[in-house]
Structures are given as structure tokens and as C-alpha cells.
Amino acid sequence: MMNQTMTSIGLLLVRWMTGIIFIVHGAQKFQGLGGTTGFFQSLGLPGFLAPVVASVELVGGILLILGLGTRFAGAALTVNMIGVLLTAKFGQGYMAIEFDLIVLFAALQQVFTGAGAYSVDAAIARKRSGSSRTQTV
User: Fold this and answer.
1) pTM to 2 decimals?
2) Helix (H, G, I), strand (E, B) or coil at 78
3) Residue 74, number of CB atoms within 10 A of its CB
4) Which residue in 16, 26, 47, 36 sits closest to 116, CA to CA?
5) pLDDT, tens digit (0-9, with 9 covering 90-100), for 39-50
6) How far apart are CA 33 and CA 26, in angstroms?
7) Cα(135)–Cα(114) distance, integer angstroms
8) What is the dihedral of CA 63, 119, 21, 97, to 10 degrees?
């Protein structure tokens, strides 16, 4: 039981920090949307992607913090980070992309593990099953 509790706490902490990182980055993109759009265009990307990416980061981060739709949010954020590495960070050395890599793998972890016991996803699963016991979702 202790191992399951520690695993759930670990998942919660990674989920929260990953969510915070994405919320901050999404909010920054919205605050400077004109500059973000220009940056996307300088990379050869259509400008309309700037608010789409900002939305994915902001909403995805909120969903991770709540532990709601965690696997879906993790998948969307994983795709987002792959896009970052293939465009804005393409060709840069390891030291320039290490933060992006850890955020990518933190998002990917959510896809594989789900939110864990301390999440809205788990509460929904418990309610559906009629069980009060803690589950990993």
C-alpha cells in the first residue's frame, strides 16, 4: 500500500509541475500573441498556429493540474513538444534542448501512466465503478 501511495504522490507532483510549465508558456504566448505569431511565421509556420499552440499549452496544462483527461492532454502536449523540437529548436545542441526534452518526456509520461490516484480522472473512475478504493487511471 505504501508503494502505491508513493507512486501516486510522485505522479501527482510530476503532473502538477508539468501543468504549471505549460500554463506559464501558453499564457506567455497569449500575452505576446503578435510576437508569437511573427516568430511562428519566421520559422515558416502559418501564423494561425500561434493561438492554437498557446491554447494547447494553456488548456493542456490546466487539465494536467486537475488530472482530467490526462492521457489526452499528455498526448496533445507531447505532439506540441515534438513540434517545438522539429521547428524552433531544430539543429540545436543538447544543452539548448534539454529543458524541452524533459518537458516532452514528462508529457509523454502522462500518456503512459495516466493521472494516478489523486486526480479528477481517478474520482470519475471510482464513481463509475461504485468503489471508494483508490485507483490509478
Assistant:
1) 0.90
2) helix
3) 25
4) 16
5) 999 999 999 999
6) 10
7) 11
8) -100
Domain locations in the chain as residue ranges: 2-129
Residue 54 in 3-state DSSP?
helix
CA-to-CA distance for 132 and 56, rounded, in angstroms?
Answer: 33
Residue in this structure with the C-alpha cell 490526462, named with its chain if needed: 70
**14-62 confidence digits (pLDDT tens):** 999 999 999 999 999 999 999 999 999 999 999 999 999 999 999 999 9
Task: Spell out the residues 6+ positions from residue 107 whose beta carbon is closer than 8 angstroms to its own.
Answer: 18, 22, 60, 74, 77, 78, 80, 81
Does residue 126 contact residue 133 with C-beta atoms inside 8 Å?
Answer: yes
The single residue listed with the C-alpha cell 513538444 is 81
For residue 128, the tally of other CB atoms under 10 A from its CB is 8
CB 91 within 8 A of CB 82: no
How far is 69 from 39, CA to CA, in rounded Å? 30
On the 0-12 / 13-18 / 19+ scale of CB atoms within 10 A, 121 is buried
Q: What is the rounded distance in angstroms from the CA atom of residue 89 to the CA atom of residue 58? A: 20
